[in-house]
Design brief:
Layout: E1 4-5, E2 19-23, H1 27-38, E3 42-47, H2 54-59, E4 64-66, H3 67-71, E5 76-79, H4 83-94, E6 103-106, H5 110-113, E7 124-130, H6 134-142, E8 149-155, H7 161-171, E9 179-181, H8 184-199, H9 201-216, H10 221-230, H11 232-250, H12 253-266, H13 269-284, H14 286-296, H15 300-310, H16 313-323
This protein binds NADPH dihydro-nicotinamide-adenine-dinucleotide phosphate and magnesium ion (2 copies).
Binding site for Mg(2+) 2: 191, 227, 231
Catalytic activity: (2R,3R)-2,3-dihydroxy-3-methylpentanoate + NADP(+) = (S)-2-ethyl-2-hydroxy-3-oxobutanoate + NADPH + H(+); (2R)-2,3-dihydroxy-3-methylbutanoate + NADP(+) = (2S)-2-acetolactate + NADPH + H(+)
Binding site for NADP(+): 25-28, 48, 51, 53, 134
Length: 330
């Protein structure tokens, strides 16, 4: 079974007296840094020269230094910059300044698992991966709870790397909801598969295609948006609370009948095979290579698709509808 740790199983004090550097002050960076600081830890922020985040980190009361300077002398370096920039930043600014025996940490296993970063033998390497966006890591902490985290240790010359990883996870609030032990490989490959095949790629394509099908058949785009996009949250909230059964208990028999009849017509053997192929490309490193290659040439694919998506009719209809629904927070 899976080992789950809570606050009582973690010793946050293990971080006291350690010089902690968080690289990056974006979604994850601000959340880890602020939560640890409010738990009494000594946190410095490392950013590149001219960074847009620099002022925000200073205004929050952190000492801010350029990446290489911030790494010098640090006992723990948590790398919270975009995945595609980590390997170059590691080579140029982290590796030349990393103290012997330091702990090098990540919130996603990508660069370690795909060997884009190969730390020296004396470095301790761990991961604390919150299973939610940084803004939720921050907000739930302030509310007295926390976002669950995965923890993993890749290299442990000191012998206490898992203790430090658990302390970090508890320090950002995850001990209040659950800290699950995993490996870099498990975290990296399941995270990439989930976001591509299901959560982001799969679900958005499903909703948008449903919308297009109704509009193409002459239905009002407003109705199409409500049925294929807006209501997704209500259904997912029920699944989140109690699984598929809870959701099916609260929908009509009509909806449940259509659910069983039509689901298998949408997700066919061909779709299942496509999922297996996607997983193979993740496992082989082909996806990682393609992503890094796009990033190195200025993200032509990412930016082209982003522009297409932003201009799709579904977004215009959604924006107009949300304006009519003041209860939806901006
Ligand atoms: P963001 O894009 O939100 O933030 C990146 C931060 O890094 C910014 O402050 C940016 O500042 C800074 N930065 C960019 N380049 C450099 C550089 N070369 N040197 C120093 N700082 C730099 O990143 P995320 O928080 O989304 O992602 C960070 C890590 O967390 C990734 O490994 C990601 O996979 C992981 N993660 C993210 C989750 C999420 O929900 N966002 C969830 C779980 C894990 P500026 O551009 O102004 O220089
Ligand atoms: Mg991810
Ligand atoms: Mg309905």
């Amino acid at each position: 079974g899976t080992t789950v740790y809570y606050d009582a199983d973690c010793n946050v004090e293990k971080l006291v007296g350690k010089k902690i550097t968080v690289l990056g002050y974006g979604s994850q960076g601000h959340a880890h840094a602020l939560n640890l600081k409010e738990n009494g830890m000594d946190v410095t922020i490392g950013l590149r020269k001219g960074s847009k985040s620099w002022t925000a980190a200073e205004e929050a009361g952190f000492p801010v230094k350029e990446t290489g300077e911030a790494v010098k002398g640090a006992d723990i370096v948590m790398v919270l910059i975009p995945d595609e920039l980590q390997a170059d930043t590691y080579a140029n600014a982290i590796a030349p300044n990393l103290k012997k025996g330091a702990y090098l940490a990540f919130a996603h296993g990508f660069n370690i698992h795909f060997n884009k970063i190969v730390p020296p033998a004396d470095a301790n390497v761990f991961m604390v991966a919150p299973k939610g966006p940084g803004h939720l890591v921050r907000r739930t902490f302030q509310e007295g709870s926390g976002v669950p985290c995965l923890v993993a240790v890749e290299k442990d010359p000191s012998g206490d790397t898992m203790e430090i990883a658990k302390a970090w996870a508890a320090g950002i609030g995850a001990g209040r909801s659950g800290i699950l032990e995993t490996t870099f490989r498990q975290e990296t490959e399941t995270d990439l598969f989930g976001e591509q095949a299901v959560l982001c790629g799969g679900v958005c394509a499903l909703m948008q295609t449903g919308f297009e099908t109704l509009v193409e058949a002459g239905y009002n785009p407003v109705n199409a948006y409500f049925e294929c996009v807006h209501e997704m949250k209500l259904i997912v909230d029920l699944i989140y609370e109690g699984g598929f059964q809870t959701m099916r208990n609260s929908i009509s028999n009509t909806a449940e009948y259509g659910d069983y009849l039509t689901g298998p017509k949408m997700i066919t053997e061909q779709t299942r095979q496509a999922m297996r192929d996607v997983l193979k490309d993740i496992q082989s490193g082909a996806f990682a290579e393609a992503f890094i290659k796009d990033s190195k040439t200025g993200f032509p694919f990412l930016k082209g698709e982003r522009a297409k998506a932003e201009n799709h009719e579904v977004e215009k209809v959604g924006a107009a509808l949300r304006n009519l629904m003041p209860w939806i927070k901006k």
